[in-house]
Structures are given as C-alpha cells and as structure tokens.
Write a structure and sequence with these properties.
The chain is of the alpha/beta class. About 50% of the residues lie in helices and about 15% in strands. It contains 17 helices and twelve strands. It has a six-stranded parallel sheet, with helices on both faces. Strands 3-4-2-5 form a four-stranded antiparallel sheet, with helices on both faces. Helix 6 packs antiparallel against helix 7 and helix 8 crosses helix 9.
Amino acid sequence: MENLNLSKHQTFYAVGLSYKKADAETRGKFSLDAEAKTSILQQAKLEGIDSLIVTSTCNRTEIYGFAQHPFQLIKLMCENSIGTVEEFQKVAFVYKNQEAISHMFRVGTGLDSQILGDFEIISQIKNSFVESKSFGLANSFLERLINAVIQASKRIKNETEISSGATSVAFASVQYIINNVEGISQKNILLFGTGKIGRNTCENLVKHTKNDHIVLINRTKDKAEKIAGKFNLIVKDYTELQLEIQKADVLIVATGAQNPTIDKDILNLKKPLLILDLSIPKNVNENVKTLDNVSLVHMDYLSQLTDDTLEKRKLHIPAAEAIIDEVKLEFISWMKARKFAPTIHALKEKLNSIKDGELDFQRKKIANFDHDQAEIISNRIIQKITTHFANHLKDDNTMVDESIEWIEKIFQISPIVSEGEALQKVTYNER
C-alpha cells in the first residue's frame, strides 16, 4: 500500500451518521438546518480548516473535508447540533482517503440511499458545495471530486434502470395509507408541511387515492397555496391546525421543525386518527401513542417497505458500480498526475538548464555550430525523457512517493508547487 499525497499534512475525511446505524431519534439530534450548516462553515474558516462540505438530510448528516484529525470535523458537527460526541461515537462512521472518496461516490449515486436509487442526495451535495465555495472552503481537489460524483450520478441515472419505478418514502406512505385505511377516497386527509417530501406525498395522494378531501397546512401559507393550486386542493391557516386535526382521518406530518409540532395535548379527538410522521427529526411526540384512537407510523418503518420495484433495482447495482469504478479511476488518474506534476516540471527545468549550459559550451568550442538545430533536437530529447518519467509515475504499479523521492534526489531538484496546489493534499491509499 502506498500513500499518494497531493498536499500538506492533511487528510481527506468523511465523518457522519446515517440510517444504517442511527435511528430516527439519534439522526434528529444531529440534524443540521440551514443556519447550523452556515455556522459550521464559519467556524471551520476560523479554525483553519480550508476545505469541506456539509450535508444533512432526513437519512444522514455528513461532513467531507480536510483535517489533521477527524475529531476536528466531528467537533464541528456536535457543537452545531444537539448531539454529543459520545452519541456520535456509538453510531458514526469515519472514513479517510480512499474510503472517504468511495463513500461520497456511493452516496451521491444513490447506492447508499435508504431507498436504492434515490437521487435526491446529489442535489444536496451540489448545494452544499456551492455554499462552501461561497465561503472559500472548496479547493480544487474537492471541486474535481464533486464534479466526478455528479458525472457518475448522471451516467447511472441515464445508463441504468436503478431509479426506475415509483419507490420513495412519499410513495411508500401513500401505499401504506391505501393498504390500511378502508375507503380512503372518502376519508379526510390533512397534510401538515409542504416541503420536498410533503410535495411528493401530496402528488402521490392525488394520483393514487382519487381523494378530493385533502387539506394542506403550512407555516408559510403561500407555499401551500402554490401546491394546492396545482392539484386543486384546500389550504387552511396554520392557526386552524388543531381544528383540522379533529376533522382528519389521516394526518401526514412532513415539516422541517427541529422539535415536535404535534403533541397529544392538541389532539382532542372524537374518532380514530392515523398519523404518518415523515419528518427528521421526528415532529410527532411519541406521547400520542398513549391515546387509544391514535396510530403512529414513522418514516423509518415506511422506508423498510420493499416491493418488486426495489428488487428489480438491485439487479442494476453491478452496472452502477462499474460506472462508478470508471469515473473514479479517471479522478484518481487526475489526482496522481496532480501530485507528480511539480516534480516533472522541475525535472524539465533541470534538463533545460543542463541543455542551455551544454549548448553554450559547444557553441564556443565548435566552429559553425548550428545552435537552432541543436536546440530543436535537445528539446525533443528532453520531451521524450520527461514523458517516460511521467508515464512511469502514472503506472498503477509504480510506488509514486518512492519514485518521486528518487527523481528529486538523482537530479537534485526541489519542485516549486504553486500556492493553489500546495494548499491541498489528499492521501489516496493505493491497493
């Protein structure tokens, strides 16, 4: 194994937690809203971390970035959420270098999603990168990596059928309602929260339940009105939430609040109520379960519902992984070239210096010396020599660090790395 370094004393890490080991309650503690993500970027800047991105969705919270130690990134996450380091350690992952790069590829292409083939996360990664860049926290390595992940995501979406068929939390929730509520087309459905999941759920409700008794409520009423206008639904004020809950047979909660918005104290019910909580962190207090006529289902359960569509998607995993390997190989080749480019450049300068001295010596010694012709021949030889060295360093079997060290020692060169290149270095463990 060899460390393929591209910069100074820093390692590329991916730290975070996801649905794989952390339940909804724990994920909720580490959930980061827009303000918290911005705070992390500001704090990172102050603490001398020069490149990172932050993502936080209902299924995962992750930081990708450069640090001398992963705890620098873990500390940022814990200090800007209500989760503790101890809680993080129980369910978290810490990947570095090769594993961190591979993890980002799998996340960004939907292979690590709770529902296989869900490509929602790639837009989150894009937006996170744009924000990091606005803070000056996105170096050329990270930009190249993000672009490679986006490229792989697009190719997998276009060249495979891993995202075919309707499978999402929004779709699963509507399936659950249809399967568990008799006469759903005649029931009163209340959707509280019209963010992304809420919008998708609403669209699936209209499409699959043929129900025209759907009421939308959102803290910001105009957002609900935009969706309602599209589907010809009813919108009520946030102040009417408690009254509308009493009328509802099904309540779907999909808000982005950091604390529960539905509590047993506001449920003055006179008939059974099915509540689906599609929020992270949970927006329905568990105490509603103490009410006899309330059934509560959380999105973690809905996400476990599998059907033929998911099974069919699994057949396309090998094709998706082959695309990832191809794009990742291109990225690694770029990364290796970025590392040895300063050495090759310094070698070329050294050979040119030797050439200039020798041509000057020969011009004084040889009568009718053809300097221009000697210059052309010498330059071609230098180009061929440096190309041989570059091809050697590009070879997968080459011990890059050792070879660079020998080249620099033999030719007595000290590569001058540009500020942009020197700022960032990543280590890639070649296997």
